[in-house]
Amino acid sequence: MPLVVSARSEAALDGQVERITRASGAAKDIAYSLLSARTLFDHRAVVLDGEVVARGSVKRRPVAFLFSGQGAQRVGMGRELYEAFPVFAEALDNVLQYLDPALKEVMWGEDQEALNQTGMAQPALFAVEVALYRLVESFGVRPDHVAGHSIGEVAAAHVAGTLSLEDACQLITARAALMQMLPAGGAMVSVIASEEEVTPYLTGNVSIAAVNGPRTVVLAGEEDEVLKIAKQWKYKQLKVSHAFHSPLMEPMLEDFREAIAEITFSE
């Protein structure tokens, strides 16, 4: 059973290691106490069978959290965490009180297609992502930076303090419902090409929906035009009901502005 020992300095760590190697008791109890009942300092060692097998000092680096967009949803997501961690359960229930009362049943039902509907998928992802953040936060992990893909941007804005929970849920509900009401159709395609390579081929019906990396972009818009452009490179068509982040979303914009007009965005 490996034992994680820590101290404020190298000299203090030597003393801690010596004391641990002489400690009596069940190894699993000692290991648990070292990690749960004592402060973890920067100078650390791992003791196994009385020998130091690893040793060093911790240097903290910036931590960033990235929240996922639509497409990451699956039925049953969050259910086991809900049952295992009261912090997660409380956080999820706190979000769900501001969303569709049927959402939890859809999330934890058996109909994946019902959850894939934009009106359910976006609020469900937001709720689970916020609850996950609160769970990790309860472990003492706090990010220096947060960001998100699409609907994940709203979760990032909420945990960063830009949006209150109630306002964020209002935005999510309006966004998801208005997108759901748009006529189905269009396409989103992941293309192995740079932003600079695809930009000259964009049209009034096709836009860059996302830049995922130096050589990976997502095109969205009218299906025939999107595919005509994408076929110049290696590509993969995404399984989506609408062409999000494209000109095909424009009919909902005025209603969306009106729906979120009273929302407060904090600095």
From TrEMBL:
Residue ranges constituting the Malonyl-CoA:ACP transacylase (MAT) domain according to the UniProt record: 66-267
Pfam families referenced in this protein's UniProt entry, alphabetically: Acyl_transf_1 (PF00698)
Single GO term (MF): fatty acid synthase activity
Alphabetical UniProt keywords: Acyltransferase, Transferase
Domain of life of the native organism: Bacteria
Any one GO biological process: fatty acid biosynthetic process
UniProt cross-references to SMART domains, sorted A to Z: PKS_AT
Name of the protein this chain belongs to: Malonyl-CoA:ACP transacylase (MAT) domain-containing protein
Organism: Lentzea aerocolonigenes (Lechevalieria aerocolonigenes)
